[in-house]
Amino acid sequence: MKSSKRSCHFFLVSALLMVSMLCHGGEGKLIATSGLTQVEGSGGGGIVPWATLSGYDSRDQWSVTAFSSQVDVDDFRLQVWGAGVSLYDRVEISVARQTFDLTTFGGEIKQNVVGLKARLYGDAVYSSWPQVSVGMQYKSLLDKDIAEALGAEESAQDTDFYLAFTKVHLGLACGYNLVWNLNFRHTRANQLGLLGWGGNKNDDRELMIEGSLGVLLNRHVAVGMEYRQKPDNLNAALEEDWRDYFISYIPNKDVNVTLAWAELGNITEGIAGTGDQSGLYLSLTGYLW
């Protein structure tokens, strides 16, 4: 069964690559300024949404993206695939399916995510001030048993809200383009919602800070790091902040590939005796016009 799932995942990635090579993205924005696709399906970094929208569409165009991502850490594997639509450089709609495999202990948790993002102000490159967007991610947990066993207050569905600021500074870093992003997320999600929402430590929404910092070494290669603050709501499962260090290859406006080292801290130390979780992150996004 696991082999079959991996084969399906590989087929999705291969099909995405082939379609991307046959399609051509728009010319509305500078290459790489659409960002990547993060693990909840929104346009941005790997673990953090950005204020930029997912496609290269200008204000009189629309675009479609599809993506597949996988994070392999010591005791777990997170597989994500999904798609997004960006409309007239104003609104982004995204969908994603997350599958969280407990590779050491057996079992899996699945979750659907529907995202909506709207650009409120500016352009990440050409405005003097950062581009500003507001977003939401509605999450529906398909496998509730583990969340309920851990004491989550809610194990069916909940919504995250965020405000994002993104700016690209042309030539600022010793002649290289510098990009930064800052997010404020209002959430009570346990491990993205895979372990439910709220718990016996805390059931209230909290304001979490997320950020990204990257440098474009040339028009096709970017390196950087990300940080995501996490709530810690469950007595039975310690939750720690996330970090990653990434390199992205953007050969053209049709596709990008990102490889990262992810450090996710403790995930289930309280119930499984596992320590810090770290490992490789791989993501592929195709821009389909």
Would you spell out the secondary-structure blueprint of this structure?
Layout: H1 2-22, E1 36-37, E2 43-44, E3 62-73, E4 77-87, E5 91-101, E6 108-121, E7 131-141, H2 145-150, E8 157-173, E9 176-187, E10 206-216, E11 221-228, E12 242-252, E13 255-265, H3 269-272, E14 277-288
Antiparallel strand pairs: 1-2, 3-4, 3-14, 4-5, 5-6, 6-7, 7-8, 8-9, 9-10, 10-11, 11-12, 12-13, 13-14
3D architecture notes:
- The chain has 289 residues and is mostly beta strands.
- The chain has one domain (2-288): Porin (Beta Barrel), CATH 2.40.160.
- Helix content is 11%, strand content 50%.
- The strands form 2 sheets. It has a 12-stranded antiparallel beta barrel with strand order 3-4-5-6-7-8-9-10-11-12-13-14. A two-stranded antiparallel ribbon has the order 1-2.
- A hairpin with a 3-residue loop joins strand 3 and strand 4.
- The protein starts with a helix and ends with a strand.
Features:
single chain; globular; Porin; two-stranded antiparallel ribbon; mainly beta; 289 residues
Helix content: 10-25%
CATH class: Mainly Beta
In angstroms, what separates the terminal alpha carbons? 34 Å
The domain tally reads 1
Supply the CATH architecture: Beta Barrel
Beta-strand content bin: over 45%
Q: Which residues form runs of ≥5 with pLDDT under 50? A: 13-26
